[in-house]
Specification:
By secondary structure, the protein is mostly helical. Helices cover about 70% and strands about 5% of the residues.
Length: about 190
């Protein structure tokens, strides 16, 4: 079992990073959607969930940086099948680029929104490691950053749905093994 990819198959390393990212993003999206539904009577639960969400956001950011570094050091990658039209290849490249962009910027806007909050709640990575806030309380900036973070979340969901739909199309309609290669490597 090869950790590195080649022209025929995705390596185990990039596949593990891909699926771990997918799982974390799903958890983060669902957690984020749930947190905002909690009312003022759930202050203790909200505190724990927001801290968990921020901690996992740092993990998503770190994992994305590792994924990008891994991809850049891969000696080769499998190409899409020659039957895939050029416009679909370009669409896939754009989709992947936007996914990476959001995976890098969403944790940053979320963290900065927390830092700008007038509530002054510290960020504790997994409840243990304090992360200093680079900016001070600013309610207007917090509102802007929260709006950006929410918009990024919905954009990420839309791009992921497109990504999943394309993978399923390749598997069910085209039967070209694009999805199987990301699951099993070959």
């Amino acid at each position: 079992m090869n950790w590195r990819s080649d022209r025929e198959r995705w390596g185990l390393g990039i596949r593990l990073l891909h699926w771990l990212s997918a799982a974390l993003v799903l958890v983060q999206w669902l957690l984020g959607r749930y947190m905002v539904t909690l009312g003022p009577e759930s202050v203790a639960e909200k505190f724990v969930l927001y801290q968990r969400h921020k901690s996992l956001g740092f993990v998503v950011l770190a994992l994305t940086l590792v994924r990008l570094a891994w991809r850049m050091t891969e000696p080769a990658r499998p190409a899409l099948p020659s039957t895939v039209p050029l416009w679909q290849q370009r669409a896939a490249t754009i989709n992947h680029g936007l996914l990476y962009l959001l995976l890098l910027t969403m944790p940053i806007t979320g963290f900065l929104a927390a830092a700008a909050s007038p509530l002054g709640i510290p960020t504790l990575l997994f409840g243990v490691i304090p992360i200093p806030h680079p900016i001070g309380p600013d309610a207007q900036l917090e509102a802007i950053l929260l709006a950006a973070h929410r918009a990024q979340g919905w954009a990420l969901a839309a791009l992921l749905l497109l990504h999943i739909a394309a993978a399923l199309k390749h598997q069910v309609i085209d039967r070209d093994r694009v999805l199987v290669r990301m699951i099993r490597g070959k």
